[in-house]
Design a protein that fits this description.
Blueprint: H1 13-25, E1 29-32, H2 39-49, E2 54-58, H3 65-69, E3 70-72, H4 74-83, E4 99-101, H5 103-109, E5 115-119, H6 126-138, E6 140-143, E7 148-151, E8 157-162, H7 170-174, E9 177-180, H8 186-196, H9 202-216, H10 226-239, H11 252-255, H12 259-264
Parallel strand pairs: 1-8, 1-9, 2-5, 5-8
Antiparallel strand pairs: 3-4, 6-7
Length: about 260
Amino acid sequence: MSFKGSDRYYLNEELGSIVRMAMEMEKPLLLTGEPGTGKTQLAFEVARTLNMPMEILRCKSTIKGEEACYVQDTVLRLNDARFGSEGTGRNVNHFYDYVIWGPIGRAFRNEKKTVLLLDEIDKTESDVQDNLLDVLEDCEFTIREVNEVIRAKVKPFIVITSNAKRELSDPFLRRCFCHHIAFPTPEEMREIVKLHFPDIEEELLEPALEIFYHLRERGFEKAPATSELLDWLQALNRSGIIPDPKKRVPFIGVLLKRTEDLLNY
């Protein structure tokens, strides 16, 4: 099983090599890079192209490592104990009738190899990252209420993304294969655009790329990324407008999103 890019995702040689090695050696793959470089999309394309199920953990500052694996619905169990569970199929004496599996738990219990995406891990606290260390490396966790170990039936392909808003711990990094996705060069961006718009005219693409990279060099608070470029090209194509690098940029609000950037444009 190997991912070699797709009709929607441009995979350069270096990234392709580490993706294939992470899959072969069953190591978590940590992808860093600025927003819009395709970190998250890579996991989706691996799942789509290789026909693999996918589980997603959208990380946030309030999340706990345990709830990524499972939680017990104690409120429902208490209600069933008080009012009865007849007709629900649940038994208040059966712990697992009240377990809600998190993305990690579902991926480990799946009998088919799964893509497990931990998106924007840098939003979590360091202790959460540490709690996930052994879980991700050993592909198992313990349900402490019943002291039972849940082991992965088939080790998932784990993709972790980070926007580097917070440094990850050294022990966490040691357990991962790491790759920084640099922002595409104009040549790479041209290939990316043509995956999405194979019939795009050169007379539109060339000035659009020139304007796009010029804007990125101006030091805006939020520089336009690949997703903004694709949206902008679609808007230009629908309107029939060919942008002129010497004139005001049409639909500038598609490329720049922060008020300060728009005011300083």
